[in-house]
Write a structure and sequence with these properties.
heterodimer, A: about 325 residues, alpha/beta, 6-stranded mixed beta sheet, 10 helices, 10 strands, B: about 675 residues, MetI-like fold, Rossmann fold, 8-stranded mixed beta sheet, 23 helices, 13 strands, binds adenosine-5'-triphosphate, binds iron/sulfur cluster, binds magnesium ion, ATP binding (chain A), Peptide ABC transporter ATPase (chain A), P-loop_NTPase (chain A)
Chain lengths: ~325, ~675
């Protein structure tokens, strides 16, 4: 079992004036056998981080380590692929012209069974694992439902015998009635196989359901990260609080209004990643920031990220609570 | 396969945003396959072109066998004569029959053109896929070379190569082949690049599939269609180019002859007997057209279905609804005069086993300024209902309704749809679609797209319309509206585009906004903004809202009334503030229970709805939900429950509605472990 660790990862797109840092100096650890839920709005860099992990987006700087080894070098060779990814849209992530069994079979590493019968048996085992009838192996994606397709995608990811799986919005393209079954399956597989997982979703309720750790991303940076229960029960960063307030509540009420000042700032559009705001990146939208409370002028100039390690949940906010020093240690 | 996406205000052009071929292919039929190629034969132009091409190819194959003797026969008595009974197209300077010579020359002309095309396509293919196979740096070098080569005019390139390779047939084939290669290389590169970014290619790469295999198994099969089509078109051009070279004396040399050479020979005597030049000229044009048109027709059939006009076809008989009984639902009539009133709405499509009816007798009504939500799984017919109401169901779909009234105007009689009706739809009905990126024309400024509506429907002048567009953008809280109006859609973020889409709907004077999954592509914070905006527009301007969503939370929090759809019908209708507490239909309750929320029990599996949604072609008899319903009894499998009022404002289509109160979050619909997906 190995952990997936992002060390100061930066991913840049474009060059010159059009350049933007989709991911900007992110450090994040997916402990072995645990699920890290990554939330954040669209464009915040969640998918870029996922793609960087599996080598689909080039790193401008930093490293991605799996079990202490650079994933870029590990990916070579035909051995097992310890890091796998499941994509958002199972309609798009399976080749429409290929039988789904073949799609899974081609992901079986060369060190695995090499004869036809062995590979077929392996495909059957994988299908069984994700709760699909082995007879479906001969189907083409068009003949399967969305949920079945996502199961195939999961089977393909498991074919490489991974220790960590990156799951990028894997239920958001699915129907509500199917979403539940896929979430149950993911949770079940993760626990049984002791998989590490980076689970990306914009739906907090879904993330809450599967994750041990929750990380919140805003404009290319992780602004808060901690044990799922703690982060959701006691969010430190104003953006996390915004997300929680926007999450669907079950009491039948309309969205809880987070109080005065809202509307004025939250309706501001997500900032342009080409022109990152100075100081705290969240300040143009922050309901407790300098635009609402003039006394918090430091947010305009001072980046809260460098000091985040000392705050609860590593929050990138000057006004988040400080982390209490562990008893018996001096700081 | 680039699909042109555009959407206008309802009542104008076709709005159905189709995703790429793979997606549209995956819904109902198989992947784009052979069937579509034969679609060519369905259009008259395609039929003619294919017939012509077949004739040309047959002639090329058999012409020389049949007529080479007559084409070579020298008639010394008749040199350089005009058309006559003996020689239809006259004779050449040795007295040979021009007509037969043209027929016989078909083989050489076509064969050389094809040879050159094959050479060009093969070279282009190699250059085109090279960047995908080579490393990044080498790939870039190849791309640069191709880009330079493409910049030269093809003819210039051909002449240049002709000189390089020397005069003669072989040289000309090489010249034309290499001259067409850069174009193909560019095309291939573009296609490869676009397919390479598709998820399934990324997925294969992540799964550890090698570059070469990705290329041959995933990329090439998925770009084969456009390549073949373009090669066909290219063959037509090669034919023309080859004739040109031969005509100039750079191509085929005596004693062989192709059309170009015949043309050249004929031209010397053009004033005395034009037929000798006209005949090969016509042959070149006809054969070239045969290739070109066939290619174009195939491109059309395989690629983009062209926009059909808005069509509400005449009602189909009840028989067309298939085996499922179709009973209209009575619309709930609110007190005020409704903006939209629909009864017995049916939408059918022809299917391989008779017509399927995804919307089976649906009734709904929206009052002035009211907000009504529609929820249901995919395939329940939500979007089709919206399209049918706005008259945007594409051919070959048919829409039929007992009543379909918008602002008191019946939209039922499609044939007689007047300009006035279209105008009414254009100004009073606004549609907002799921993906605002595909709903805007990417090449037009946002402001221009908005102001166009005001110009067309409100007769405003250009400047006034622009001012109104800016004002509307400001109203939907686009910051710096003047500057933003001058930007293009890709410069907007997703949430901003969606707001611009709403602004677009507000350019007329809408009485109803139909929003089909307007926030599905957005994240929670932006979703909240967009829903609030819709709410504000509704209360400020008294615009009614029909909000379609698969997300029951969104609907419950935005709308006053909720319609739950299953298998093309409304199964429950109730005020949204009672949705979570008083829903009685088993399907509604299941939908509510299955969605994870912030208080879901983390220690147990999520409740799931067993089974699969109904496919429109196979609606079970009796209650459509019966196979998945935990409360089903015998009667449910035989008798179809009608939608009936259970109490004021609450209608249910169920024989055994739930009688308890609140839907408990942990209400067990089924034991998830026995469901197909779960395992012990
Ligand atoms: N052009 C078409 N030709 C044939 N069948 C169609 C067409 N458009 C839709 N259908 C079928 O009609 C049914 C209902 O489609 P519709 O798009 O209304 O569903 P929906 O409830 O909006 O689903 P989703 O949430 O996925 O958008 C589906 O089974 C679909 O396959
Ligand atoms: S640092 Fe200031 S602006 Fe940034 S989140 Fe904290 S309070 Fe808001
Ligand atoms: S009619 Fe019967 S099968 Fe249909 S929803 Fe009601 S109880 Fe279930
Ligand atoms: Mg839909």
């Amino acid at each position: 079992m190995s952990e997936l660790r992002f060390e100061n990862v930066t991913v840049r797109y474009g060059t010159g004036r059009r350049a933007l840092r989709a991911v900007d100096g992110v450090s994040l650890t997916v402990p072995p056998g645990q699920v890290v839920g990554l939330v954040g709005e669209s464009g915040s860099g969640k998918s870029t981080l996922a793609r960087a992990a599996v080598g689909l987006a080039p790193l401008a700087s930093g490293r991605v380590l799996l079990g202490g080894q650079d994933v870029v070098h590990r990916a070579r060779g035909g051995g097992h692929r310890p890091l796998q990814m499941v994509f958002q849209d199972p309609y798009a992530s399976l080749d429409p012209r290929m039988r789904v069994g073949d799609s899974v079979a081609e992901a079986i590493p060369r060190t695995g069974p090499s004869d036809g019968a062995g590979r077929r048996a392996e495909v059957a085992r994988l299908f069984d694992l994700v709760g699909l009838d082995a007879g479906h192996a001969l189907s083409r994606p068009a003949e399967l439902s969305g949920g079945q397709r996502q199961r195939v995608a999961l089977a393909r990811a498991l074919a490489g015998r991974p220790s960590v799986v990156v799951a990028d919005e894997i239920t958001s393209a699915l129907d509500v009635s199917v979403q539940g079954t896929v979430l149950n399956l993911v949770r079940d597989l993760q626990r049984r196989m002791h998989l590490g997982m980076l689970f990306i979703s914009h739906n907090l309720a879904v993330v809450r359901y599967v994750s041990d750790v929750v990380a919140v991303m805003y404009l290319g940076r992780i602004v808060e990260c901690g044990p799922a229960h703690d982060v959701l029960a006691d969010p430190q960063h104003p953006y996390t609080r915004e997300l929680l307030a926007a999450a669907p509540q079950r009491d039948g009420s309309a969205w809880a209004d987070t109080g005065q000042g809202e509307g004025a700032v939250t309706e501001v559009d997500p900032p342009d990643p080409h022109h990152v705001p100075a100081g705290c990146r969240f300040h143009p939208r922050c309901p407790v920031g300098p635009l609402v409370r003039p006394d918090r002028a430091e947010c305009l100039t001072l980046d809260p990220t460098p000091g985040s390690a000392g705050r609860v949940h590593g929050a990138a906010c000057h006004f988040a609570a400080d982390r209490l020093p562990p008893p018996g240690t001096a700081r | 396969m680039a699909v042109e996406h555009r959407t206008r205000t309802a009542g104008e052009k076709e709005p159905r945003t189709r995703e790429d071929g793979s997606r549209s292919g995956t819904r109902d039929g198989g992947p784009a396959g052979g069937g579509q190629w034969f679609g060519v034969l369905r259009s008259p132009l395609g039929c003619c072109a294919a017939g012509l091409l077949l004739a040309v190819l047959l002639l090329a194959a058999f012409g020389p066998l049949l007529w080479s003797g007559r084409a070579a026969a020298v008639d010394t008595g008749r040199l350089l004569q005009g058309p006559s009974g003996h020689h239809w197209m006259g004779t050449d300077n040795l007295g040979r029959d021009v007509f037969f010579r043209v027929l016989v020359a078909t083989r050489l002309s076509v064969a050389l053109a094809l040879l050159a095309t094959v050479l060009g396509v093969a070279t282009g293919l190699v250059l085109g896929v090279a960047p995908a196979l080579l490393g990044r740096r080498a790939g870039r070098a190849v791309t640069a070379v191709v880009n330079i080569a493409v910049a030269f005019p093809g003819l210039l390139l051909a002449l240049f190569f002709a000189v390089v390779f020397g005069v003669g047939t072989q040289g000309a084939v090489l010249a034309i082949g290499f001259a067409t290669a850069p174009g193909f290389a560019r095309l291939t590169q573009t296609l490869v690049a676009s397919v390479s970014e598709r998820d399934f290619v990324c997925a294969a790469r992540v799964a550890g599939v090698g570059r070469l295999r990705v290329l041959t198994r995933h990329v090439l099969p998925n770009i084969a269609e456009p390549l073949i089509v373009n090669a066909t078109i290219g063959a037509g051009s090669a034919l023309l180019a080859f004739s040109g070279l031969s005509f100039l004396g750079l191509g085929v040399q005596a004693p062989s002859y192709d059309w170009g050479r015949l043309l050249g020979e004929g031209l010397t005597g053009i004033y005395t007997h034009p037929a000798a030049a006209l005949a090969p000229g016509a042959a070149v044009v006809i054969a070239g057209l045969a290739f070109n048109l066939t290619g174009e027709a195939v491109a059309k059939a395989v690629g983009i279905p062209t926009a059909h006009g808005i069509r509400l076809p005449p009602p189909v008989g009840k028989a067309a609804a298939g085996k499922a009984p179709v009973e209209p639902e009575a619309a709930a009539g609110p007190g005020t005069e409704p903006v939209l009133s629909v009864e017995g709405l049916r939408v059918s499509f022809p299917g391989p086993h008779g017509p399927v009816t995804p919307v089976r007798g649906l009734g709904l009504s929206v009052g002035r300024g009211e907000s009504v939500g529609v929820v249901g799984e995919s395939g329940s017919g939500k979007s089709l209902t919206a399209l049918a109401v706005s008259g945007l169901v594409e051919h070959p779909g048919t829409v039929d309704a007992d009543r379909l009234e918008f602002l008191g105007t019946s939209l039922r009689d499609g044939e007689k749809k007047t300009a006035a009706t279209r105008q009414l739809l254009g100004t009073s009905l606004a549609m907002v679609f799921q993906d605002p990126m595909t709903s805007f024309n990417p090449t037009m400024r946002i402001g221009r797209q908005l102001s166009e509506v005001a110009e067309q429907h409100l007769g405003m002048n250009r400047r006034g319309a622009w001012a109104r567009a800016v004002e509307r953008l400001r109203e939907v809280r686009i910051p710096a509206a003047e500057r933003r109006a001058a930007q293009y859609p890709h410069e907007f973020s997703g949430g901003m585009r969606q707001r611009a889409m709403i602004a677009l709907g507000l350019m007329g004077r809408p009485a109803l906004i139909i929003a089909d999954e307007p926030t599905t592509a957005l994240d929670v914070t932006v979703q909240r903004q967009v829903l609030r905006l819709l709410e504000r527009v509704r209360t400020a301007d008294g615009v009614a809202l029909l909000l379609i969503s698969h997300d029951i939370n969104v609907v419950a929090q935005t709308c006053e009334r909720v319609l739950v759809m299953y298998a093309g019908r409304v199964v429950e209708e109730l005020p949204s503030d009672r949705l979570l507490t008083a829903a009685r239909h088993p399907y509604t309750r299941a939908l509510i229970a299955t969605v994870p929320h912030m208080e879901s029990d983390l220690d147990r599996p999520l409740p799931v709805i067993p089974g699969r949604p109904v496919t429109p072609g196979q609606v079970p008899s009796g209650c459509a939900f019966a196979p998945r319903c935990p409360a089903a009894r015998d009667r449910c499998h035989t008798d179809d429950p009608r939608l009936r009022v259970s109490e004021p404002g609450h209608r249910i289509a169920c024989w055994y509605p739930h009688t308890g109160a609140t839907v408990r979050p942990d209400e067990q619909l089924s034991d998830p472990t026995t469901e197909a997906g779960g395992r012990p």
